[in-house]
């Protein structure tokens, strides 16, 4: 597949090329970067009910984000197993614009989310943390500010 770029649109960097190109600070230091009060970059949403009901509510939101005018990725960090490749296809999401990044444990998911946010390669990075403490919120907000990216944490409850 070939990509054409126009003079007004910079080419999209991969996640890690974006990190290297920006020469970013270590992840332990990002919580110290003050987020600008003018634009909140971290949002949270809680969906409760059956998993099927939550997926029905989530599908149009993800579809809209996957079709955003912004040419950067919609990145899903460690999504729940119910949001499989098949579900993404059946929900008519633009899978060419979605980056799925698995994580083995919650701390790895937080670090991965911060890397994705800081890189600036995504317009929105979605996480699935059941609970965010103050430190995690600060890290995500600061990383989102550095990358000029939106961070959305979705809590799925029953």
TrEMBL record:
It comes from Pseudomonas saudiphocaensis. Keywords: Cell cycle, Cell division. The keyword Transmembrane helix does not apply. GO terms for biological process: cell division; negative regulation of cell division; SOS response. Pfam families: SulA (PF03846). NCBIfam families: SOS_SulA_aeru (NF041583). The lineage of its organism: Bacteria, Pseudomonadati, Pseudomonadota, Gammaproteobacteria, Pseudomonadales. Coiled coil: none annotated. This is Cell division inhibitor-related protein. It comes from the Bacteria.
């Amino acid at each position: 597949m070939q990509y054409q770029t126009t003079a007004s649109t910079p080419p999209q960097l991969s996640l890690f090329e974006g990190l290297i190109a920006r020469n970013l600070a270590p992840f332990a230091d990002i919580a110290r970067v003050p987020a600008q009060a003018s634009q909140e970059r971290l949002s949270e949403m809680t969906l409760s009910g059956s998993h099927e009901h939550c997926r029905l509510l989530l599908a149009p939101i993800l579809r809209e984000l996957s079709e955003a005018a912004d040419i950067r990725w919609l990145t899903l960090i460690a999504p729940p197993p119910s949001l499989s490749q098949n579900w993404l296809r059946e929900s008519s999401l633009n899978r060419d614009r979605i980056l799925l990044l698995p994580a083995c444990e919650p701390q790895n998911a937080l670090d991965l989310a911060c890397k994705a946010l800081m890189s600036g390669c995504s317009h929105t990075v979605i996480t699935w943390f059941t609970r965010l403490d103050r430190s995690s919120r600060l890290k995500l907000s600061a990383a989102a500010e550095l990358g000029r990216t939106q961070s959305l944490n979705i809590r799925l409850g029953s």
